[in-house]
Design goal:
Layout (H helix, E strand, L loop, with lengths): L2 E4 H12 L2 E7 L3 E4 L3 E4 L2 E4 L2 H11 L3 H4 L4 H14 L4 E7 L2 E6 L8 H10 L7 E6 L4 E6 L5 E3 L3 E11 L7 E9 L4 E4 L6 E3 L4 H5 L1 H9 L2 H12 L6 H11 L4 H14 L6 H11 L7 H17 L2
Antiparallel strand pairs: 1-8, 2-6, 3-4, 4-5, 6-7, 8-9, 9-11, 10-11, 11-12, 12-13, 12-14
Helix pairs in contact: 8-11, 10-11, 11-12
Protein name: DUF932 domain-containing protein
InterPro entries: DUF932
Organism: Desulfatibacillum alkenivorans DSM 16219
């Protein structure tokens, strides 16, 4: 679920989630599996989380949906065969306590959320700053509104632009920066579709060095969103229910995301409907209770993509 909070709370939550996390470069020769649920390093057993299981299946070249349904003996056989053919000498393994939360080749090492927080702090985003946050063990979406640039559209509906930083320590998404718009009346957050974007897959000094320039570039496109919001209010939608179902299919929303949209629909849809209502249905959906952080971020991006279609 996505909520309004402070940068200090984000620091505390990121620190709490990472307190038992560590990384290790593990020799492939020391690894064996008992099914896909358990990985042994030497004699130590490590439960494997679902995201890591999916990464292992991808490396094996077998669909996870198939491998997860095989019995444990067949899984063990397939995984053992894959290990004998692995070209890397080591794997970069991310742990949370005893559990394997992600597995990569040594070339790809995702950025830690705490490093992102440290860089934002260095750039002057203080602990008392209000933000919108969606955070869990697999994904972080942190949005910083710039209240000095708040503008009004329609019947004094006030919107505040800003930037969104998202990251996944377990490889579900690259570190990225995008434009963001917050609707003040209901704190719906839209992640805008912009010409400037930044996405980084590998840890390097370059990632954090270009952070300030990228933030400035993204912020420079925020004025475009004012025009798009006004146009969305002037764009009628004859059958909003069908339009929503069509966008759900177009953006290939997962079932929990569809349910979140259904939850938001009666709260945001007014007749006569406009594209503004449609956009806000998706951004409101990101606040659905129990929704994973990655889905919250995705629904905000869908709202931004739909707004970007308005001409």
């Amino acid at each position: 679920m996505q909520t309004m909070t402070t940068m200090e709370d984000a620091w505390n939550r990121v620190s709490e989630l990472s307190q038992n996390c560590f990384d290790d470069l593990v020799p492939v020769k020391d690894i064996r599996f008992e099914g896909i649920d358990n990985m042994f390093i030497g004699e130590e057993r490590h439960p494997v989380r679902t995201t890591a299981q999916r990464q292992i299946a991808t490396r094996l070249g077998v669909p996870y949906s198939y491998l997860s349904k095989c019995d444990a003996d067949l899984q063990t056989e397939n995984l053992g065969y894959w290990l004998t053919r692995e070209k890397n000498d080591d794997f970069f393994v991310r742990f949370d306590g005893a559990e394997v939360r992600a597995l990569f080749t040594p070339r790809y090492q995702p950025v830690d959320n705490i490093r992102v927080m440290e860089r934002l702090d260095e750039m002057g985003f203080g602990h008392d700053m209000e933000i919108q946050l969606a955070l869990d063990a697999e994904f972080m979406s942190l949005s910083i509104p710039d209240h000095e640039k708040t503008f009004a559209v329609g019947n004094d509906d006030r919107l505040t632009p800003g930037i969104t930083v998202c990251n996944s320590e377990v490889g579900r998404a690259a570190l990225s920066i995008a434009a963001f718009v917050l609707r003040l009346v209901c704190t719906n957050g839209l992640i805008a579709k912009t010409a400037v974007s930044a996405s980084y897959r590998h840890i390097s000094a370059k990632v954090m060095e270009v952070f300030p320039e990228t933030l400035q570039q993204v912020a420079g496109e925020l004025d475009v969103q004012q025009t798009r919001f006004r146009l969305s209010m002037e764009s009628p939608v004859e059958n909003p229910s069908n339009t929503i179902h069509s966008f759900n299919r177009q953006f290939q929303l997962a079932e929990p995301e569809v349910q979140a949209v259904d939850w938001a629909y009666p709260q945001e849809m007014e007749l006569p409907a406009t594209m503004f209502n449609v956009v806000n249905t998706y951004t409101k959906a990101s606040q659905a209770p129990g929704l994973p952080a990655e889905s919250c971020h995705r629904l905000g991006r869908v709202g931004g993509a739909i707004l970007g279609m308005v001409k």
